[in-house]
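queue> pop job 88
queue> type: inverse folding (structure -> sequence)
queue> payload:
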């Protein structure tokens, strides 16, 4: 079951899905969008909890960006928490890799595909 994260502000806390509960179709759908791939790649190159939602240079508005993060949380790829007025992110690479070995490596270009 998705769990509620603790909220540090007035916003509703984001709901996080355990990667162990994610279906392959959900995982593949999450990584099929170019904007989400960009978000994943930027998070993979950043230290955990250092990137706020507004720090990504993606060609979508605030509502669409929020939707993309919701999809990534629902697929167990991203964890978010509120730090004051900012919502910061962490790529759940270790947990996601345990569920879908090699999938993130393919998305991130860490391995060659024949």
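queue> result:
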């Amino acid at each position: 079951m998705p769990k509620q994260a603790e909220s540090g502000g007035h916003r509703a806390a984001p709901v996080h899905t355990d990667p162990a509960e994610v279906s392959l179709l959900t995982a593949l759908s999450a990584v099929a969008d170019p904007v989400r791939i960009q978000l994943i790649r930027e998070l993979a190159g950043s230290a955990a909890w250092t990137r706020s939602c507004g720090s990504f240079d993606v060609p979508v508005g605030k509502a669409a960006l929020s939707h993309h993060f919701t999809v990534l949380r629902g697929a167990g790829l991203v964890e978010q928490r509120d730090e004051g007025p900012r919502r910061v992110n962490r790529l759940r690479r270790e947990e996601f890799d345990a569920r879908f070995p090699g999938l993130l490596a393919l998305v991130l270009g860490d391995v060659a595909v024949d």
